[in-house]
Amino acid sequence: MTDLTDISSALAAQAIELPSWAFGNSGTRFKVFGSPGTPRDPFEKISDAAQVNTYTGLAPSVALHIPWDLVDSFADLRKHAEDNGVTLGTINSNTFQDDDYKLGSVTHSDPKIRQKAIDHHFACIDVMNETGSRDLKIWLADGTNYPGQDDIRARQDRLADSLAKIYARIGADQRLVLEYKFFEPAFYHTDVPDWGTSYAHTVALGDRAFVCLDTGHHAPGTNIEFIVAQLLRLGKLGSFDFNSRFYADDDLIVGAADPFQLFRIIFEVIRGGGLNNPEVAFMLDQCHNIEKKIPGQIRSVLNVQEMTARALLVDRNALAAAQEAGDVLGANGILMDAFYTDVRPALAEWRESRGLDGDPMTAYALSGYQEKIEADRVGGTQAGWGA
Amino acid sequence: MTDLTDISSALAAQAIELPSWAFGNSGTRFKVFGSPGTPRDPFEKISDAAQVNTYTGLAPSVALHIPWDLVDSFADLRKHAEDNGVTLGTINSNTFQDDDYKLGSVTHSDPKIRQKAIDHHFACIDVMNETGSRDLKIWLADGTNYPGQDDIRARQDRLADSLAKIYARIGADQRLVLEYKFFEPAFYHTDVPDWGTSYAHTVALGDRAFVCLDTGHHAPGTNIEFIVAQLLRLGKLGSFDFNSRFYADDDLIVGAADPFQLFRIIFEVIRGGGLNNPEVAFMLDQCHNIEKKIPGQIRSVLNVQEMTARALLVDRNALAAAQEAGDVLGANGILMDAFYTDVRPALAEWRESRGLDGDPMTAYALSGYQEKIEADRVGGTQAGWGA
Amino acid sequence: MTDLTDISSALAAQAIELPSWAFGNSGTRFKVFGSPGTPRDPFEKISDAAQVNTYTGLAPSVALHIPWDLVDSFADLRKHAEDNGVTLGTINSNTFQDDDYKLGSVTHSDPKIRQKAIDHHFACIDVMNETGSRDLKIWLADGTNYPGQDDIRARQDRLADSLAKIYARIGADQRLVLEYKFFEPAFYHTDVPDWGTSYAHTVALGDRAFVCLDTGHHAPGTNIEFIVAQLLRLGKLGSFDFNSRFYADDDLIVGAADPFQLFRIIFEVIRGGGLNNPEVAFMLDQCHNIEKKIPGQIRSVLNVQEMTARALLVDRNALAAAQEAGDVLGANGILMDAFYTDVRPALAEWRESRGLDGDPMTAYALSGYQEKIEADRVGGTQAGWGA
Amino acid sequence: MTDLTDISSALAAQAIELPSWAFGNSGTRFKVFGSPGTPRDPFEKISDAAQVNTYTGLAPSVALHIPWDLVDSFADLRKHAEDNGVTLGTINSNTFQDDDYKLGSVTHSDPKIRQKAIDHHFACIDVMNETGSRDLKIWLADGTNYPGQDDIRARQDRLADSLAKIYARIGADQRLVLEYKFFEPAFYHTDVPDWGTSYAHTVALGDRAFVCLDTGHHAPGTNIEFIVAQLLRLGKLGSFDFNSRFYADDDLIVGAADPFQLFRIIFEVIRGGGLNNPEVAFMLDQCHNIEKKIPGQIRSVLNVQEMTARALLVDRNALAAAQEAGDVLGANGILMDAFYTDVRPALAEWRESRGLDGDPMTAYALSGYQEKIEADRVGGTQAGWGA
């Protein structure tokens, strides 16, 4: 039996933020399928998210998306969260669903539309001040579909200007986290396509600006763990949006498509001092288009935990010695040994020793919660990306 | 001035089918933007499509999508089309928007759902018999998002069985055309991911089954013109869905992302005897998410025409001689010479000689049609992928 | 402890063919690094390959590459192999290193060069008759670098003609296995780029023609296990060339880049009846550019064995039930459960129960063989891709 | 006829540096084909390069590769160049062919090997001082093939340290230009994989450190013109290595694979002030594996010139107005109008007006130079990547 004694405190400290929108409906441009029990409002989303924490002890906070999660009283929402044992986390802005943003938001050639997008971020900061959130995460759908449609260079300059205005409004204990994405929904170019662009802008902004790395936002063949190592080295890795993908931005369950990649990513996080470091937030950003949402989230945080355990088990002294000796097969073998170790039985025991159920998936399934929400949540409009 | 004399009859014979859904709204999973003047019903879509033909003489038929284009009377729709100088073309089935199809349609493990999907195709064949359409085009969203979700092999067998039942219903003068797509909306596997799969199934079905090649449905780095050449050689290229893409299934204007690729594709069509061959239908399948739809379609058919003219101008005797001589640079140079020839002035003259406006884009813009539909089409629900 | 009782006979029957060229030097266009102890001739390659079998019991045969492995007497080589406990396996042809083949071999526009390439295959069949080999594996470097360089369609026709001539020479108990590769060393197009092309040609050839699937020869995003399932369904999967890659045709150790993909591939082999089926040969095709070659091969066959064990452990009844029930997370979970099972301790015990060392990597390292060949093999020319 | 009057001075100022190694043999890991007339030494390479300039007026300098181009007297080589009407340009270092560099050079874990690699760069700077070269271009093959093989993060730190030592030796009028490449010859990770990494290091080094953008060194789907725009904006675009590719680092003739991409790249260069700006060097980096080398280079510089002319013809006022108006199709149309303009006849005239032959390809072919070198250069060892 693998012994987790040495890594127990690292495991105990782990926290993964859940996205409120993972509990609503999502889909593709072809169809958004509904599902019974889907929340109708942010309060119900928080209730569902809290279930994930109840059964795993891994997910103590919930990220909100504005305006999808706008409520009359964020104080009430905050209390509701706390009553359910979780807190409100990162605030995500949204400048891609208003008709004005058809051709861009903070990069738009029209200064009025840019100001509208900047104002939206000011409103998000107001929400942060009410929810007690630390991070404003900015993902932009800005970009173009056709060469020549707009001036790529001018858009960078406008981006820099808009970000500076938003950054100036961020509180002393708050952070601006800029996400990059190389593709979709803009098809020809996106205005923040890669970590280099996000990095250059956050350097220009200042010490409280960081990069968000969404694991699904890279070109094929990209070595993501390298980017992790590089951003940690440069002091600019602010957060992860975890998910997995086979081809594009699939937003599948983290670890589902390539578990070994997830292992390598977390290993570099540990190597670079990013694990359980408050500077580097772990978040999920996923879409449960066809699978049940609450167990989908439970499975996801468990995947992160299991891979973290494996990565913590790497014999780093032996690894360093093999690397130093130029022993290619030996060094690779030490890494693989940890990856192939089945940590699940030990984690179940460890979980039980901490008052949790050893098998969170089954415990949730047997809890009756799913049946209850499916029965109770009748009527109203199921939450989705539009609301 | 480039002389089009020798290729005039080939140009004159060219016909490109328009998709009715290109005139409705479309978008991404993030947002579908509306636009003034969008049709509210299939009749208005046909009217708009007819404008493309009026100004280009290139688009004499319109493909329908069932159930999006269901009307009370297809006889009326057919008459409306004929009154506007176009005909009704390919019928496209849709088995991806009913809740029953969440996990598959003709490949579903539940025989009742498979039969429902088969019955939908029977209904499409009924429509074909009313519209006088020759082709039933089948694109399937079937696939899975997670490894293990379903049995890949069993789904192939069920696919073969379902297709055989549909094929048996096709009339003697009708065809079944099976489209392939390597990704989206299913993320882990699609049931018809590549030309090989579509080819193997159409061979098993029989002589009236063909492959549809959508230019946006391939993995990065795929040489599409090779597939064109191969399918023509094997006698199974039934139709094209033209569009262009930078990364995924962008459905941008054909030729917009890589004009040289479009040139190479059409060159292989000509080389293999597929141009103006009724066996090989040219169709558009595009999404005008942010640009105006009617001029978007005009631009598209003009792009196909211009590239066809360039490809027809290749000096094939000289090319063959250079190829035979192993003259790599010479052979490439002969191809490029045609590609770099600016055929637009000669095409404008040629158009005028045939009673068309030399500049269809401007002619449409000046026609007042766009202003009229934007003013007239107020109220009702704009057509989109849902209707 | 995982119990291997039920899968023991399947494991015992497994055989993986080694490529003789894996024991010679290899590299990239930038540099081929030499390494001490590298074989100078085919006899030494066989000796090294036999070591892999000695320590794993998994690798009873060795594939040859002609002309790299030409010897004066194949009877002697055959006897040398048998003396070392292995047999000679697949014969691989080579039509990419003679100056005549600069622009193609069996597809060349010059019939004399095509005949030369066909004759080379005849010579390979002669070797097969001496070595007792069943399979002639054909991988072609044929293709073009520039559009227009040659006639893609004509090359297909010439390919078909050349293959037919080669196939006609194959003995009644022999097979022609046609490999495909979508890229490299030709850059614009390859003449056998995908499984569809290889499939269409082997169908045209006849019952003794099969497809070889090299796991590194696909475009990014390709679902390889789907192709496995499809080719097994169509009865045309003849063999695997196992290796792994991160981007192109890296020829890394199988399972090194994406272990979960290897698991899924082998699961589909089992699902489709291809495991330990003589019709489906398992082979390695790898390049140990920087790591030691013999342990590199040992690691490789162990990776295949370990993944086979995991794939055999999938609870297929439970999986089928979850699939039937549309339980997406449940079905995926059953697959993942087998993948995450650490089979290594049980395999070590099982190995020992069969008279092998439980840890083949260490057993080889301690054997002194490596030190001996590094000391003995001084002088001469180290084998590589040129010889 | 397109009028080049307004862009004549921009065209006249254009200069593209040629790589000496393009005139030697090159190939793939499968085969390097020789060709008659290939230079045997750096003097002959310079002679050949000068031919390109003679016929195009576009290529006044030649980049050298150390140690491939080491000569006894660089003063003699410099004089030979000047006698042939060209100058010696960028010095390229090479730390990938010595056995010591098997696992890395400036990033190697062994400080002695790092120092050796640093010393090689010092030697390159010595050459620069003799040749009068301004730029030291560093492309590193450093990276790993297997996860765990070495410590990615530590290698970044060692890279930074080594580069700092090299940079400290650069003269006040010299520059260090750091190239990035996402793949090959290292397969799992490369130490400078992307522009972000190169950018971060050059910022840390100082004002005389710049990024080199090789157009073939990106992941599929990467928008290269965006990177051009971004690096120009950040003041760090030092040079281009032009070539083209269909999949990996094909090093084909620039513009051959995707002419429209080349157009877009050069348009962004112009937009950002990089054309004929001494800070942004235009160079070729290509491999003429199967085509003749001198005409291959002539074709290449003409491609760059022709695309430059097209990009200069963009009506930027009209473009800006359409962009400002949000006219997607209009703005795209203005860009495409310039791309589709056939500038070749006007360029031929313009060339003749400047005392050059209108058709450099034919002029070279008729010159007899090729026949002469093929007859004269008998014996000796043809130059290639090894020498």
TrEMBL record, chains A, B, C, D:
<keyword id="KW-0119">Carbohydrate metabolism</keyword>
<keyword id="KW-0464">Manganese</keyword>
<dbReference type="InterPro" id="IPR050337">
    <property type="entry name" value="L-rhamnose_isomerase"/>
</dbReference>
<dbReference type="GO" id="GO:0008740">
    <property type="term" value="F:L-rhamnose isomerase activity"/>
</dbReference>
<protein>
    <submittedName>
        <fullName>L-rhamnose isomerase</fullName>
        <ecNumber>5.3.1.14</ecNumber>
    </submittedName>
</protein>
<dbReference type="InterPro" id="IPR013022">
    <property type="entry name" value="Xyl_isomerase-like_TIM-brl"/>
</dbReference>
<keyword id="KW-0413">Isomerase</keyword>
<keyword id="KW-0479">Metal-binding</keyword>
<dbReference type="GO" id="GO:0019301">
    <property type="term" value="P:rhamnose catabolic process"/>
</dbReference>
<dbReference type="GO" id="GO:0046872">
    <property type="term" value="F:metal ion binding"/>
</dbReference>
<dbReference type="Pfam" id="PF01261">
    <property type="entry name" value="AP_endonuc_2"/>
</dbReference>
<feature type="domain" description="Xylose isomerase-like TIM barrel">
    <location>
        <begin position="73"/>
        <end position="228"/>
    </location>
</feature>
<dbReference type="InterPro" id="IPR013457">
    <property type="entry name" value="Rhamnose_iso-rel"/>
</dbReference>
<dbReference type="InterPro" id="IPR036237">
    <property type="entry name" value="Xyl_isomerase-like_sf"/>
</dbReference>
<dbReference type="GO" id="GO:0019324">
    <property type="term" value="P:L-lyxose metabolic process"/>
</dbReference>
